[in-house]
Write a structure and sequence with these properties.
Residues 1-19 form the signal peptide. It is a single chain. The protein is of the alpha+beta class and 156 residues long. Helix content is 46%, strand content 22%. It has helices at 2-26, 31-37, 62-81, 110-117, 121-124, 144-151; strands spanning 44-54, 85-90, 99-105, 128-138. It has a 4-stranded antiparallel sheet, sandwiched between helices.
Length: 156
Amino acid sequence: MKVKFYVILSILTFSLSSAQKKANEKSKFNQELATSLGADRYGMKGYTIVMLTTGATQIADETKMAELMKGHMTNIGKLADEGKVIVAGPFLEKNKENYRGMFIFNTQSKEEAEQWVKTDPAVQAGIFSYEIFPWYGSAALPLYLKHHKEITKENL
C-alpha cells in the first residue's frame, strides 16, 4: 500500500522535474524568483505531505457532519491564505489504504505540519486521521494558488 503511494509520488516528482526541465530550456533562469521560493539548484525544495485517512469517529447527524466539513473547508482556506498549505483535495475513488484526501504543506518539518493539520475541525473530531511524509517537489508549486482563485467561480 505504501509502495503504491511512493510510486505515485515518484511519477509526480518525475513529471514535475521533466516539465521544469522543458520550461528551463525555453525560459531564462530567474535567481530572484528561485531565491524567493526557497529553490535549490534544481528548482526543488522540501515539503510535507499529509495523507488524510478515515478516522475512528463516525457521525450520523448530518447537520453536525455538514458543520464539521464546512469547518474543514474554511480551515483549508485559512491555511492556504497563510501560505501553509499549497495543495489540498480529496481522492475521487475509494482505496484500500482509506486515504480520503491530502495536503501538501509548505514546510519540511513534520512537527509543524502536524500542528497545522490538527487545526482542522474534522481531524479534531476524529472523522479524519492522518499520515505524514516528507516530499521533494518543485519550489514553484505554491505559485499555482494565485491562479486557482482566478478560475474558481464557486467555493465548495
